[in-house]
Amino acid sequence: MGKKNWIEFDNQENIYKGKPKEENLKKISKINISKQKKGKKGKTITLIKGLAIRNEIEVKELLKKIKVFCGTGGTVIGEDIQLQGDMVNKSIEFLRKEGFQNS
Prior knowledge:
Shape: globular
CATH superfamily: SUI1-like domain
Number of strands: 6
Helix content: 25-40%
Oligomer: single chain
Mean pLDDT: 78
Radius of gyration: 19 Å
CATH class: Alpha Beta
CATH architecture: 2-Layer Sandwich
Number of helices: 4
Strand content: 25-35%
Order of helices and strands: HHEEEHEEHE
CATH topology: Translation Initiation Factor Eif1
């Protein structure tokens, strides 16, 4: 049988280009995690700043994962993440598991 729709290529050289360097640059940054009182009733929120993720889709994916891990609600405001409640310790634990480092 002929090779009408079959194309062979070597993908080994593309595996080592770019991705590890980009991930390392994204994951090493100055991350601020703080607890604040907000609103009329003084509800507590946890604010995560400085993740150095510019892509909105990646931030939303990270928010979804951290909300499931912490068992709470949250939102993205700009490049920052807000979680409901006092989730400072849980968010630090989650970010370390995901490979983020505080420099």
